Structures are given as C-alpha cells and as structure tokens.
Amino acid sequence: MQKFDVIIAGGGLAGLSTAAHLVEIKKDIRVLVYDANQIGEGASGVPGGMVNPITGQKATLAWRAETSMQMLEKRIQNISSYSGLKLSYENGVIRPAIDEKLGKNFRSAIKKSRWPKHWIDWLSPDDLARRIPGLKDNSGGLFIRKGKVIQTPEYLKAYAAFLTDRNVTFKFGGPYNLFQNTDWVLESGSETFTAPVAVVTSGHKTRENKYWTELPMKSVKGQLAVYECDEKVDTLPAVSAYGYIAPVDTHKLVVGSTYEHHFHDENPDDQGAALLDQKLAELLPDLYTKCRYLHSWSGIRATTPDRLPLVGKHPEFNGLFTFSGLGSKGLLYSEYIGKLFAEHLISHTDLPNEISLYRLSKYRDLRKLAKEKQDQKAK
Ligand SMILES: Cc1cc2nc3c(=O)[nH]c(=O)nc-3n(C[C@H](O)[C@H](O)[C@H](O)COP(=O)(O)OP(=O)(O)OC[C@H]3O[C@@H](n4cnc5c(N)ncnc54)[C@H](O)[C@@H]3O)c2cc1C
Predict the structure, then answer these.
(1) Residue 24 C-alpha to ligand 1 middle, in angstroms?
(2) What is the pTM of this model?
C-alpha cells in the first residue's frame, strides 16, 4: 500500500494544474496523479487549443480573464525548458465580423467590457486583410492581441516532466475502485494507494465516478482536422468564427471544431472531416488550395449550464473533491482555478461562488440533507 497526501484521478489540464499548485504551496506534500489512460488522452489532448479570453456573440471578457491569462503565461514560461518544441503561438486571435449585427456587437464590446490595456482592437477590412490575407467576406473584426494557441499535447508532456521533477508520482492503469476507509483508497489491479484527500478530475468521465453522478455536466463531442500547407502558416493569428483555424506548426494548421450534443461514437468520422474541410474552404479559400488534409482528432468536452467549471468538496463525503466542467476554456482557466483549488485544499480558503459546486441549488440541498443526517446520527 502506498501512502499519499492527495490522490488526483485524472491527468488532464485540471489534474496537472491542481498537482502543480499543491507542490508549489507545500513543497513536501505527497501527490499521486492517477490516470485511467495516459496523459493527454482526454479532451486536453486537443492538437492545438486556442486561448481566447472572449465569450459569446456579444464578445464579453471571460470571467477573471486577466489573472487567468497571467497565470497561464507564467506556467508556459516555467515548463518550456522541459520541451524542445514551441509550446505556444502568440500571434493573437481574430474574430471576423461575419455579418452587420456581429460587427455592431463587437464594436460596442470594446467599449463595454473592461478590457485590460492593449488586449483588443477593432480591425478595418484592410487591417484584417493584412493580418489574414484571403479571408472571405471580410467586413473587419476584432483582434485579441493576448489570444494564443497552445500545442496542448506537447504542453502536457512538458507539464508532466516538470511535475515529476517536483516529486509528483504518476500512475496509469485502467479502471480502479475508489472507496473510503478512514482515508480514501484507490485500488487498481494489484496496487493500492491511500490518501486523506481524493480529487476527481476525470473530465467528462467524472460523472461516471459513483460519487459524482449528480454533476450537471453535458458531454459535447468535438472533432478537429489537421492540415499541412505549402506555405508557412506559423505567423498567422488564429481565426475564431463558429469554430477556429489555428497554426500548430510551421506548415501545419488545425481546423475545428464540431459541437456534437448527440453522438454514439467518440472517434472522429468522415462526416466531421467533411464539415471541417468545408469550413476551411469557405473561410480561407486561397490557403485551402495549398493545404492537404492529414488526420482528424476527437475529444469530449464537459460543459456546464453557465459555462464555468464545478469545483469543491463532496456534500456528503469528507476529503472527496472534484474539479471538472472546464468546457471550451480549459486552457484559459485551468491554471488559475488550479491555484484557487489547491489553496482551498491546503488552507481551506473559500472558492469564488462563480466556480463553486454550491452555486447550484441542487448541491446546496444535498449538503443540507447530509448535514441533517449527520446531526441526527450524532443525537
Ligand atoms: C474538439 C475540442 C476542442 C477544444 N478546443 C479548446 C480550445 O481551443 N481551447 C481551450 O481552452 N479548450 C479547448 N477544449 C476544451 C479543453 O480541452 C478542456 O476544457 C480541457 O481539456 C478539460 O480538461 P480536464 O482535465 O478537465 O479533462 P480531460 O482533459 O478530459 O482529462 C481527464 C483525464 O482523466 C482521465 N480519466 C478518465 N476517466 C478516468 C478515471 N475513471 N480515472 C482516472 N482518470 C480518468 C482521462 O484519461 C484524462 O486524461 C477543446 C475540447 C475539444 C474536445
């Protein structure tokens, strides 16, 4: 039996950032990251993820975007020496104004949201054409300077190496049994791990954990297609227009993504690839003729009703926590929320209501019920 202080079940962005902040706050803490598969096999393995601090049609600034961005940038810096490759493309993100209404929304968004200095500009059609030559139906658009594209598979590899260097233990091993026996016990094959604290960060699979079946998350499948191009694409900004097109290498770009609320199969399919091909052909017709389809990728996002993650302690079981539901903003949020969560685990600081499980009446009710049961038992 191997003893730890914290067991984290899931080695995606949520699990790795939680582990990192735990060891950064408390150097000698013993952390196990247990993944049923491999690092990057969940949604976090997306081959080129965009960091876009804008949300919705009205282009409002995302929740605590400035701090989230600062923390992500710091993390990119301190893990980059663990990779020989480029971890991010810092060319900004463009949101083209596809129609008159969007253009109006975007222009007023610059004034309405409290944007940090130099984060956002309105581009005239000429300015936009200089940044992305050949963009179809160019009516101008927003340029989010701070936006970037992360090489997520490489980022996760570097992150895991950085954590291994800080004594975080990684184990991989298929399905497991998690139960409470004073401490939490995770049994996998012939191995047993225990810790007073267990955290489930298994992305959309968190709901398959018997303690977390009530989480209000939906699984939304997304497919991406990777293309190789004759010309260099690594200086292009990412384009965010009902999905995105983004550079992932000197001559490679990724086109995403589908949003499939009903699906039978988690794998990429021909229909998804055809849709994405059409997207590239329609948005950047000239570039499209110089690019060849290489392969597709698919993953499942865990989305919540208000598009913010679900973080906190189980209403009934002591020492059991989750950090799930990062939706489409895992890259922007995981670092900052990982830090808030690690502080909550170690120092019992409150979590902001916007991300706490207990912003949901269902969880407040479950907590109340558990407390009543406990009080009755104590009598
Ligand atoms: C097509 C697509 C495009 C996306 N694009 C972007 C983007 O541009 N920008 C952005 O910020 N985000 C994007 N996302 C979302 C982003 O990938 C997620 O928000 C983020 O990866 C979620 O991280 P996670 O750690 O919560 O979950 P995951 O990455 O899913 O990690 C969960 C981990 O848990 C493991 N696991 C599963 N079951 C168990 C179990 N029973 N026990 C232990 N481990 C288990 C899995 O193997 C996996 O490693 C995209 C997602 C998809 C699908």
Answers:
(1) 23
(2) 0.96
